[in-house]
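ping. complex inputs:
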Amino acid sequence: MEKRAFKQAVYALRNDENALDAVQDAMMKLVASYASRPADEWPMLFQRILQNAIHDQLRRQKVRNRWVMLLSALGLGARDEDGVEEDPLERMQVEQPVSAPGTPHGDHERRAVLAIIEQEVSRLPARQREAFMMRYWEEMDIAETAEAMGCSEGSVKTHCSRATHTLAAALRAKGVEL
Amino acid sequence: MEMTMRAGVRPDARKKVVPGFERQVAGYLDEAARTLPDDVSRRLAQARACALAGPLPPAQRLRLGVLGVPVLRSALLAAGVVFTFLFGQYWGMVSQVQEYRAVDTALLIDDLPIDAYLDPDFRAWLQRQEQES
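pong. complex structure:
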């Protein structure tokens, strides 16, 4: 459970240390505040607490990033000729079809696809990513997802649909067909 | 409290509720969660154990972030107390100056009472002032 929560936090925060803090905070709050609640409510409660912890970390990151942006403005960091930061994953193109796992080549390609998927998941708008993760990764139903996200069930469906389309289009653009 | 909520891969269960594309993405994400670096897995396990054991002592929580929240909170509290004290001093001084100014203004603009002109000493003082000027 904590590993999946950690990955969710990493996709949102893009920082392992902050993600670890967010997951730890979420687990502590769940145990401290909701241990007495029925066990079938824990997944939804944990997701709600986790998302709040992630939002808190994002706010703190924004403050810290002001200093990072100052350093970037001074010219630090890898940039290409056009001044755009280089991203190694942008250069990865996956040939079709993806080889079967088990062989070294297949494993390598699978890892490449995984890296692209993780990058594109991380790039999704926050609400779409939250809805997608809860619905399809955590396998929460629409009502649970809506409660955890604090929105209507209709909004959850919209977020999920948009996330799926965005993700599929982004993966196709990089040569990944699932 | 046992934290055993939907952990691990459940491909059969997922097949029933999650459509094809989403199921495949979820499968990749499962793999990403399974293959975390050892140190991250260890720290997550420790965090889980800490959470189940109860709240961390304050000294341990201070190590969590670069600027731990308790440290920041104390600093803000101390700054608030100092600011309140200084503001109180400043406000007291401003109020006193305004009070003196109001008294002086009232004295300067007040009309002279009619009795003053009937006072022989006042008339003598006026004549003396005229002679001096």
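Chain B touches chain A through 43 residues (CB under 8 Å).
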